[in-house]
Design brief:
Elements lengths: L2 H22 L5 H8 L7 H11 L5 H7 L16 H17 L20 H11 L15 H13 L10 H7 L3 H18 L6 E6 L4 E6 L2 E11 L8 E10 L3 E2 L2 H14 L3 H4 L2 E4 L5 E2 L15 E4 L10 E4 L8 E2 L13 E3 L3 E3 L2 H8 L8 H10 L3 E14 L3 E3 L5 E3 L21
Parallel strand pairs: 1-13, 3-11, 10-12
Antiparallel strand pairs: 1-2, 2-3, 3-12, 4-9, 4-13, 5-8, 6-7, 6-8, 9-10, 14-15
Helix pairs in contact: 1-3, 5-9
């Protein structure tokens, strides 16, 4: 079927959509009533008015064709590649022009905007999305939240690392109302980072972009595997790292860092004396003798002089997999038993480590060049419950980076909030306390 045939095949569905809009639109105002009185017998004026709008240049086949050029970000376009800095530099020119023309309008506060709604704020929403290139310029001047607006909102959400549900709620609205000049300045600040980070990357590497809370496995300038992540909370930020992944641990023990013993474990034990036992955490002295929790004075700093080690299992804070790399920070990439956190937009909840969704897929790729570790063996190692280590034959370069604005090889500009306030442009659009 040709593109033209596709468009005609879609018309009955679009007509049903418009009929639903007409039924919900409350078009019984005085002007609408006057038009109905003059309509032909048996006509549905509300529906005909909507269809008539749809047939104008602003909303008809011309827009249908133009909207095909407004693309979602490509999942295979890596955040860091040798081209990223140059493409981002071009994006700065585009945003300079947007700022010179007055930027974009603020979208008035509203609890929620979604498909099928009539709302005055949709007029500003359409203009806002048009200026940033998320919606075709022919689609302004209409207060209906139609399928074109929904698709544009999804694109905007994808470019800003938000859940792509096509609904305007608090997080999406806050991100939309960041001024164009601030977004332009974000791009300029990140250029120097990108120029440093995108040299000598090599053919195969892993990138953790901390503000995006995302992990990418990149091979020959293609993101072959992409993973949602949970990174350090603002009070315990994840560090910038340049290292190499050297080993994968299956069903690892977790040795609790001294910082977590002091900040978390001691206060927990004061409130919940059974916490260690309930979480399978054992205590050892300097001679590797196991102690009981009752032997520790939890109302002092005595606990920091002991080793706390959590047994392997589904309850283990590292999950079933830990990815090791040399660094002075004592952080890892790992699995987690708290997989519900990956569904949040605000994924800054760790003490500095990086939790990786679907980490097993990343491990398949990391061990692809290591003899004896095909995917089925990885699966067996995880499911055995036994501690086992896989040493990479070729260590894979690893980069934990802080990039809040960039344009990848697909040419689509992306932004993330400055969650650690390192850009110096003010508070992030999404407050740290917001759970989305």
């Amino acid at each position: 079927m040709s593109e033209t045939d596709d468009r005609f095949a879609e018309r009955p569905n679009r007509r049903r959509f418009l009929r639903r809009l007409a039924g919900a639109a409350a078009l019984a105002a005085a002007g609408g009533a006057a038009r109905r009185s003059a309509a032909a017998p048996g006509a549905d004026p509300a529906l005909d008015a909507l269809i008539g709008d749809n047939q104008h240049d602003q909303f008809g086949q011309t827009f249908d064709q133009a909207s095909r050029t407004i693309r979602m970000p490509k999942p295979t376009a890596p955040t860091l590649s040798p081209q990223t800095a140059d493409i981002t530099q071009q994006a700065i020119k585009t945003y300079d022009d947007i700022v010179a023309r007055g930027g974009w309008p603020q979208v008035p506060p509203v609890d929620e905007l979604h498909l099928g709604m009539h709302h005055p704020s949709v007029l500003d929403l359409r203009t806002r999305l048009t200026v940033s290139g998320d919606l075709d310029r022919n689609a302004v001047g209409n207060d209906i939240y139609d399928s074109y607006v929904e698709a544009a909102v999804r694109r905007f959400q994808a470019r800003h690392g938000l859940s792509t549900d096509g609904i305007v709620r608090q997080a999406t609205l806050l991100a939309m109302n960041v001024p164009a000049a601030t977004r332009r300045d974000q791009l300029k600040i990140n250029i120097s980072r990108l120029k440093t980070l995108t040299t000598n990357l090599g053919p195969r590497y892993v990138v953790v972009n901390i503000p995006a809370a995302r992990v990418e496995a990149i091979e020959h300038d293609v993101a072959v595997s992409r993973h949602t992540a949970v990174v350090g909370r603002p009070s315990r930020p994840s560090p910038d790292i340049n290292s190499k992944i050297v080993e994968v641990n299956f069903n690892p023990y977790w040795t609790v860092p001294v910082s977590i013993v002091r900040k978390d474990l001691i206060p927990l034990m004061e409130k919940e004396p059974d916490y260690l036992a309930n979480n399978h955490i054992r205590i050892y002295d300097v001679h590797h003798n196991e102690l009981q929790a009752s032997q520790i004075n939890w109302y002092s700093d005595d606990a920091v002089h002991y080793t706390f080690r959590q047994d392997p299992g589904d309850f283990n804070s590292l999950g079933h997999i830990r990815i090791n790399f040399p660094s002075p920070y004592g952080v890892y990439m790992h699995d987690t038993p708290e997989k519900d956190l990956f569904g949040e937009d605000f994924r800054y909840d760790s003490s500095g480590c990086c939790r990786v969704q679907n980490v097993r897929q990343l491990v398949y790729w990391l061990l692809d060049e290591t003899k004896g570790w095909p995917p089925e063996v990885v699966d067996q190692a995880v499911e055995s419950g036994n501690q086992e280590n896989a040493r990479l034959v070729k260590p894979v370069p690893l980069h934990w980076v802080y990039v809040t604005a960039w344009s990848a090889s697909d040419g689509i500009v992306q932004f993330r909030e400055d969650i650690y306030n390192r850009d110096g442009l003010g508070a992030p659009a999404i407050p740290p306390v917001t759970k989305l």
